[in-house]
Amino acid sequence: MAHEHDHEHDHEHDHDHDHDHEVDEEAVARHLEGERAYMRRQALAQIRQYPDVALRMRAREITEFDEFLVQLVERMFELMHDAQGVGLAATQLGVLQRVFVFAPDEESAPRAIVNPRLTLDERDKLVEEEGCLSLREVRVPVERATRVVVEGQDPNGDDVRLELDGLAARVVQHETDHLDGVLIIDRTDAESRKQAIGELRPQPSLV
Ligand SMILES: [Zn+2]
What we know:
Blueprint: H1 5-11, H2 22-44, H3 67-82, E1 87-89, E2 99-102, E3 111-120, E4 125-130, E5 140-145, E6 147-153, E7 159-165, H4 166-179, H5 184-187, H6 190-200
Antiparallel strand pairs: 1-2, 2-3, 3-6, 4-5, 6-7
Bound molecules: zinc ion.
């Protein structure tokens, strides 16, 4: 799942400026921003983009908790970080295995959930805009449960159970959808879907 761009931007201006060094700091900030944009492009180039067929496939249950899984999860953590995302599913790398990574909040370390099972609190739902690392700049309104219990395993095969709300609850629903081949354009209203599919159509190059 893609991060809010405005939100990202705000944080870069949180720290205090020392006036004497303001010019240098701004040059450094510009340099770092360029670096981050470059890292993001590099990461996105490794993430399957709509209409890649892998995004429409159902991933299989994971039964082997081996070195391959550990390395896959490490790579997913790195790509999610570099792409400035808050969640990433294995299907987005073309790996049809039921595992996703997500960032629960700004303070906590990212987590990996293997073979996720969700229990949604159906009483409280909220429509909010979502983006996706596989859908370029598209953002569409999606209704999700605001509270969810996610159960599954960690990459070592140990049981995990998390009670989540807010953004984290939204992210795990988004990522579990990926493992079933479901995208946010399937979950939005007809008008938003039509507009999104228009935006995702390959642009004819001007020659
Ligand atoms: Zn996504």
